[in-house]
Amino acid sequence: MAIEILMPALSPTMETGTLATWNVAVGDAVRSGDVIAEIETDKATMEVEAVDDGVLAVILVEAGSENVAVGTPIARLAEDGEAVDDVASAPAAAAPSPPVAEAKVESSALAAPAPVVPTPAAAPEAVPAPASAAAAAPGAGSDAPRLFASPLARRIAGDNNIDLAGLTGSGPHGRILRRDVEAAMSAPAPAAAPAMAAGVTAAMTAASAPAAPGASSLEPNSQMRKIIAQRLQESKANAPHFYLTVDCEIDTLLAARKVMNEQSPDDVKISVNDLVIRAAAMALVKVPKANASWEGDNTRLFHHADIAMAVAVDGGLVTPVIWAAEQKGLAEIAATSRDLATRARNGTLAPEEFAGGSFTISNLGMFGIREFAAVINPPQGAILAVGAGEERPVVRNGQLAVATVMTVTLSADHRVVDGAVGAEWLQAFKGYIEAPVTMLL
Fold first, then answer.
1. How far apart are CA 177 and CA 62, in angstroms?
2. Is there a catalytic annotation at residue 414?
3. Is residue 357 within 8 Å of 321, Cβ to Cβ?
4. Under CATH, what is the fold of the domain 148-191?
């Protein structure tokens, strides 16, 4: 019996996605565990593995198709003994109707409930892809060897016109990684033939010509960018934001961090951001009313400080979560945050690692930003914007002095966090930051 491959739900909030590429072609043998396609979700580009063995009989949704609803048949496998032509010509199953209401999530252990999302566009009509189109799928074909490359490596290579077929992967089983593409980009280009060089020179001359006044170009928005825009617009429109700002003197914290790093093993390096995460988690435990989200008829109170940290990636933003951060020591927070940030940039996070969370921290201090206000990450109730630590004049006992000061701004949803609660939380956070030894109590 033919096996239908359905559009998977790669995150709890995913309703539609973009089928970025097919890594197999019609007629290819597929084994369970093979990476057969790459799906661009609202968070990242992720690989899809086959769960059954068979032969790819037909591709129902072509590469590049957007707004493919979760559960839509995207391809069909022929099992042993089945004729590929018979499976390919069988009528396609109807795509599922889009959900009319948001599903309620009763437990916050793995994911927070998603905000209401507009009804997704209809799925593309399921039409068998022509053999020529399937054969042209990246890394697939009956004659060409299959290319194994991470989604991020493929994107960087595509943006810089790098031919992956000419690269040797340094990952497991020869998989091409980001560092392989970047190494190829930095390698000196081979000398071109005179005729080719002349053509390149002419093209470069044309490209370097000054643009006409008012010139512009259009760049298609990725699925991630569209979802980010949609959710933040909904957050700003639906959640009544209010902002509280406080200055924290961090000289004691910096001194404590220096001592901890000198005493810690070589593979443990605690950053200021790790200390901010720990202080935020402890403050959420001390002021539990700030650790909440609005759900219409109910307010969800979180039992742990599940801290999401904003990480900038190619084309958008990902917020991997440090679950129950209040139960982790600084060394564990440092190791976890570093691992999550690295895998977020490489596009290798599992869905449960970036879905949910009860509170978000956005730190732009490394860019020299002194102060900013962040938009709440729905459906959470608050987000903390962290600026750079810098030396500033302060007054102590009527005397002018110099201290290292870090400005933080809490953006809170007034439906669930009152002004007094937000101020109490910031007071607790400031206390932990200025007296870091209290984080250990």
1. 25
2. yes
3. yes
4. Dihydrolipoamide Transferase (4.10.320)
Say whether pTM exceeds 0.70: no
Euclidean distance between CA atoms 374 and 367, whole angstroms: 15
**Segments making up each domain of the chain, as ranges:** 3-146, 148-191, 223-440
Token reading at 102 = 């948001």
Mean pLDDT highest for which of 66-70, 71-75, 80-84, 378-382?
Answer: 378-382
Question: Which fold, 3-146?
Answer: OB fold (Dihydrolipoamide Acetyltransferase, E2P) (2.40.50)
pLDDT tens for each residue of 251-300: 999 999 999 999 988 888 999 999 999 999 999 999 999 999 999 999 99
**223-440, which class in CATH?**
alpha beta
Q: Round to whole Å and give the CA distance between 116 and 100.
A: 10
26: its two tokens: 């019609």
Q: What b-and-e string marks burial along 390-412, b requiring 16 or more CB atoms within 10 Å of the CB?
A: eeeeeeeeeeeeebbbbbbbbbb
Closest CA to 281 of 252, 302, 255: 302
C-alpha 19/C-alpha 133 separation (Å) is 14
The Cα 156–Cα 150 span in angstroms is 10
Strands 399-413 and 382-396: antiparallel
**Least confident among 1-10, 132-141, 238-247, 428-437:** 132-141
Taking CB atoms within 8 Å and a gap of at least 24, the contacts of 179-188 are 180/153, 181/153, 181/156, 181/157, 182/156, 185/156, 185/160
Catalytic one of 173, 241, 303, 414: 414
Task: Give the separation between CA 400 and CA 422, rounded to whole angstroms.
Answer: 30
* Structure confidence at residue 8 as a pLDDT band (50, 70, 90): confident
143: its two tokens: 């004659």
Give the Cα-Cα-Cα angle 398, 401, 402 (nearest 5 degrees). 150
Q: Could you tell me if residue 302 is left (phi over 0), alpha (psi between -120 and 50 degrees) or otherwise beta?
A: beta
CB under 8 Å to 412, separation ≥6 — which residues?
Answer: 241, 242, 243, 244, 290, 376, 381, 382, 421, 422
**pLDDT given at position 368:** 95
Average pLDDT, whole number, for the chain? Answer: 81
Question: Beta 307-309 vs 359-363: how paired, if at all?
Answer: parallel
